Amino acid sequence: MTKKVVKPNLQPTKSIAGLWAAFCIRYPNEESSGIFTRSQFFLNSKVACPECATENRLFNFEQRFIQCRNCKRKIWLLAGTFFNRVRRFRPWLAAIWFIEAGVMITASEFARLLKVATSTALMIFKKLSMVIESRMEKKSEKIPSAHFSNTFYRRSRETPAGRHPREEETAAVARVGVNPRARMQLVRDNRANELAVTEKERKLVNSLIGKAEKLLLSLVSDNPISYDRLCKQANLPINEYSAALTNLELFDFVRRLSGDQFVLGDSPYASPVKGSPSRKLIERRNRIASRFIDFVRANYRGISRKYLQNYVALFWAYVDKKTWAQDSLMSACICYREIRDDDVISYVTPLDVVAPRILGAKKKAG
Ligand SMILES: [Zn+2]
After folding, report:
1. For the stretch 228-249, what's the b/e string if a residue is b when 16 or more beta carbons lie within 10 angstroms of its beta carbon?
2. Model's pTM, two decimal places?
3. For 336-353, what is each residue's pLDDT tens digit?
4. 68 alpha carbon to ligand 1 midpoint, in Å?
5. How many Å lie between the centroid of ligand 1 and the Cα of residue 107?
6. 40 CA to middle of ligand 1, Å?
7. Which residues 6+ apart lie within 8 Å of 351 measured at CB?
């Protein structure tokens, strides 16, 4: 049997005070923090000099560049990297430390410990959450942001003047040109879909769906289409058209909005179609949403819609300790590009939030 190499546990306790004490032993001051960060980049940088191709590099731990011993060329270590323009490394290392340990710390408490402004603390966590999000692509779920709207209690510059922060959802939807009512309806339909429909009922209803109905279904989408326009596009005799439309509406295959506009419904009678969410998926989405909502309520009370995606990413890093174990976030940062403050300030969560599927996994009993 081979023995596994066990790394020394540098994070012996899971409390903020314990973690902070351990952090202060490992990174007692700004100098040690800077040296650690730069040495990480030195170890990860290309070995050969870009000028003369020799492998004779010199790294002075107090400076921010590598120098070639042969041609004396200086290579800036942090140019274009995540840590470019960072003046104080210690707060960054501390934020990474807390996230990797899976211990929640609020921006104000973090600001107090590290002696930085709360706005600086918020910026650090947002930038880190963007790095975390970049690792999400595989096995992720897209969830309409409206699912999370009861966590939107904080204003942002996206909040319409004089309105509740929740109104950001409507504004975001309107901006991309989707009818907000249609969007909300689709979200609600996700839940309606959970209603049990027997296979017999499904078959019966689907036997009523003929050629004309199928034609109309191919023309209706999530974007509202008017009665007249649909009629024109379908090019069916008017009585056939209106009968088919009524049939579809009756069983929620399409949904009528105000102003005689139509969108796709999410009929419980629909046979599982490619692209439509399965019940399993809907249940998983709902589990993700409700766990996230609990996380926000316990730790932040409320968030803004604008930064929803960032908080979902942070939630993932705090919860999924298999992926976000010790050293994982630091490694991810080293491989990432520079994020400017403006990138954070101008960021707006898209209509569909990305969340790793693991967050919606069924909890094992016990
Ligand atoms: Zn050289």
Report:
1. eebbeebebeeeebeebbebbe
2. 0.71
3. 999 999 999 999 998 889
4. 5
5. 44
6. 21
7. 144, 145, 172, 173, 176, 178, 183
